[in-house]
Write a structure and sequence with these properties.
- The chain is α/β, with parallel strands linked by helices.
- The protein folds into 2 domains: about 1-105 and about 260-355, Isopropylmalate Dehydrogenase, CATH 3.40.718; about 115-255, Isopropylmalate Dehydrogenase.
- It is built from 12 helices and 14 strands.
- It has a 10-stranded mixed sheet with strand order 2-1-3-12-11-4-5-10-8-9, with helices on both faces. A two-stranded antiparallel sheet has the order 6-7.
- A hairpin with a 5-residue loop joins strand 11 (about 265) and strand 12.
- Helix 10 runs antiparallel to helix 11 (about 310-325) and helix 11 (about 310-325) crosses helix 12.
- The radius of gyration is 20 Å and the shape is globular.
- Bound molecules: 3-isopropylmalic acid and magnesium ion.
- The site of magnesium ion has 2 residues, from helix 9.
């Protein structure tokens, strides 16, 4: 199994290094050999090559069985030409690999219930939401797009677009995911205002005819944002477009206690899947051994499950993470009274010993 590793910027290098230790240990335990090869993406690629996504990186990813990514971006590149911002590297690799489906499972680890922002009676009802975000279309990529001047003043524009085939394939991913969970899909849109959302809803309803065993509901995005904090237990799978999914997945992550705990998988039809924590590069704590490596470690677990069909190995990592939390190890983002404070490397040490 060949894995292309893209540590990226900020805490990306630290969390990826720790996640790779876990991958290697799991490989040793189960007699699996993983070959890894590093490549540049984001700010570090701009510094070295002048672009956020060098062609060599794309080639290395295409030549691998899966991709593990840390995070991109940082203040160093904030003033750079928008056309080559670090984020363009991330959007570019998603597009190049055709990774249209982004799975972001937000679940509350029982051990972290105290770190959760929601009232205990709400938490008690459970929090286990899978956000299925469309990743290669919508307003992130739609044309026309414009940053310039019009009628004598600054003017900017982006366009939210969705073709039927883009909606159908992401709806299918959501229905399939629901079949392996509680069998419910809520499609989130803004069909009361946006034409593109009316097409979205119509196609989701049509595709649902092939999934009669799955329960389908619809919700406007503003209401969904509210319901997520009011009663997240009503959701199983949430399927939505690129921008709404970006926003709602951060919200879903935050209500579980910390954005530092959530992994993600980005999948396409045939290309290698890409696995990354949903949090960013956290430049404020980069290089200080403070970052929480668990989201990246759990992303490795998702990689084993989805790309390599290694459910046992994936479970092994998840169980080790749960055990580590039970033992009280806490990085700063999930610290609570009585917790054992650890840094990035020591958190991974604890997971390793629990493997
Ligand atoms: C995410 C991030 C990215 C996105 C940024 C860094 C381009 O916020 O993965 O959610 O908007 O998709
Ligand atoms: Mg985001």
């Amino acid at each position: 199994m060949k894995i292309c590793v893209l540590p990226g910027d900020g805490i990306g290098t630290e969390i990826v290094a720790q996640a790779l230790r876990v991958l290697e240990a799991v490989g040793g335990k189960f007699g699996r050999a993983f070959e890894t090869e590093e490549a540049l993406i984001g700010g570090c690629a701009i510094d070295a090559e002048g672009v956020p996504l060098p062609a060599e990186t794309v080639a290395k990813c295409q030549d691998s069985d899966a991709v593990l990514l840390g995070a991109v971006g940082g203040p160093k590149w904030d003033a750079i030409d928008p056309a080559i911002r670090p984020e363009k590297g991330l959007l570019g690799i998603r597009k190049e690999l055709g990774l249209f489906a982004n799975l972001r499972p937000a679940r509350l680890f029982r051990e972290l219930a105290d770190a959760c922002y929601l009232r205990p009676d709400i938490v008690a009802r459970g929090l286990d939401v899978m956000v299925v975000r469309e990743l290669t279309g919508g307003i992130y990529f739609g044309e026309p797009r414009f940053d310039g001047e019009k009628d004598g003043e600054r003017f900017g524009c982006n366009t939210m677009t969705y073709y039927e085939h883009e909606i159908r394939r992401i709806a299918r991913v959501a229905f399939e995911a629901a079949r392996k969970r509680s069998g419910r899909v809520c499609s989130v849109d803004k069909a009361n205002v946006l034409d593109v959302s009316r097409v979205w809803r119509e196609i989701v309803i049509d595709e649902h005819k092939n999934y009669a065993d799955v329960e389908l509901s619809h919700m406007y995005v503003d209401n969904a944002a509210m319901q997520l904090v009011r009663d997240p237990s009503q959701f199983d799978v949430v399927v939505t477009g690129n921008l709404f999914g970006d926003i709602l997945s951060d919200e879903a992550a935050a209500i579980t206690g910390s954005i530092g705990m959530l992994p993600s998988a980005s999948l396409g039809e045939a290309n290698p899947g890409l696995y990354e924590p949903i949090h960013g590069s956290a430049p404020d704590i980069a290089g200080q051994d403070k970052a929480n490596p668990l989201a990246t470690i759990l992303s490795v677990s998702m990689m084993l499950r989805h790309s390599f069909d290694m459910a046992e190995e994936a479970d092994c990592i998840e169980n080790a993470v749960v055990r580590t939390l039970e033992q009280g190890y806490r990085t700063g983002d999930i610290m609570q009274e009585g917790g054992k404070p650890v840094g990035c490397a020591a958190m991974a040490d604890a997971v390793l010993s629990n493997l």
